[in-house]
Design goal:
By secondary structure, this protein is mainly α. The chain has 12 helices and 2 strands; from the N terminus they run αββααααααααααα. It has one domain: MetI-like (MetI-like fold), CATH 1.10.3720.10. A hairpin with a 3-residue loop joins strand 1 and strand 2. The chain is globular and about 75 Å long.
Length: 276
């Protein structure tokens, strides 16, 4: 059995762990405007990034956006996931395909679609002006709200499919039994459905949170150059500034923050709903 797992382990070590070790080693080097990268073994980049108000604001902005988008996605996705999980007719396969369909389109294309809606001469502003609801175009593009809409549109299918897969395996008899015992609909959801679907909620939330923390195209296209998140900031360091040590440092700081909140969230869910 161990031999069957060996190829996958070697593939992960070669394509994931190895480059991460190399990137961590690069983060310990120094940046020089003339030599670009000077070999060293120092944590100065981490100290500098942690103490710099500019990077502190970027990290907090990224974390806040990820938590907000994860919470909103969960609230929006849960009713759809419940409906999909309880769907029993022949149309279920088509509904699943329709849910998966947005994933076939790249993030850049979807962000371009949102741009067509949010521009000053976009569909939303044109429609509102023709209905005489506004006199001046609304500022929708290059705002945090636009980024939130764009991120939720990207990650929503992941949350719906993850939760619906768990709800599908919850016996309907439990809801019927609770209803026969006089429990109202809200109490049935809070005491029966939500605890039993907690593994799906936890898995979906973690997956969505990780995707939100690492979003790039949506933040750049809908947020504009003034709206900074970690992924665009890392790109700027590697490509525009040629500062590979600082770029690698920011990448590992993003990884550390993401893993810390992921582990904390998993433990919190496990304790709250006693997941096994």
């Amino acid at each position: 059995m161990a031999l069957l797992v060996l190829p996958a382990c070697l593939l992960v070590l070669g394509l994931l762990i190895g480059p991460m070790i190399l990137m961590f080693r690069i983060s310990l080097n120094h940046f020089s405007p003339t030599q670009l990268m000077v070999e060293a073994f120092s944590f100065d980049n981490y100290v500098r990034a942690a103490q710099d108000p500019y990077y502190q604001e970027i990290i907090l902005t990224t974390l806040g956006m990820a938590l907000l988008c994860t919470a909103l996605t969960l609230v929006i996705a849960y009713p759809a996931a419940y409906w999909l999980g309880r769907l029993q007719n022949r149309w279920k396969s088509l509904v699943v395909i329709a849910t998966l369909f947005p994933l076939l389109v790249g993030n850049v294309v979807r962000s371009a679609g949102w741009m067509a809606l949010f521009e000053r001469d976009g569909l939303i502003n044109v429609t509102l002006r023709r209905l005489h609801l506004i006199s001046e175009p609304l500022t929708l593009m290059y705002t945090p709200k636009a980024v939130v809409f764009g991120i939720i549109a990207v990650v929503l299918p992941y949350m719906i499919l993850t939760i619906s897969a768990v709800i599908e395996n919850i016996p309907r008899d439990l809801e019927d039994a609770a209803s026969n015992l006089g429990a109202p609909g809200l109490k049935i959801f809070w005491r029966v459905i939500l605890p039993l679907s907690a593994p799906g909620v936890a898995a979906g939330s973690i997956l969505v949170f990780v995707l939100c923390m690492n979003t790039y195209a949506t933040a750049v296209l809908l947020g504009g150059p003034r709206f900074k998140m970690m992924a665009p900031a890392i790109f700027d360091q590697f490509v525009r500034g040629n500062n590979w040590p600082m770029g690698a440092t920011l990448a590992f700081m993003l990884l550390a923050v993401t893993m810390s909140f992921t582990i904390f969230g998993s433990i919190a869910f496990a304790r709250r709903y006693r997941l096994r």
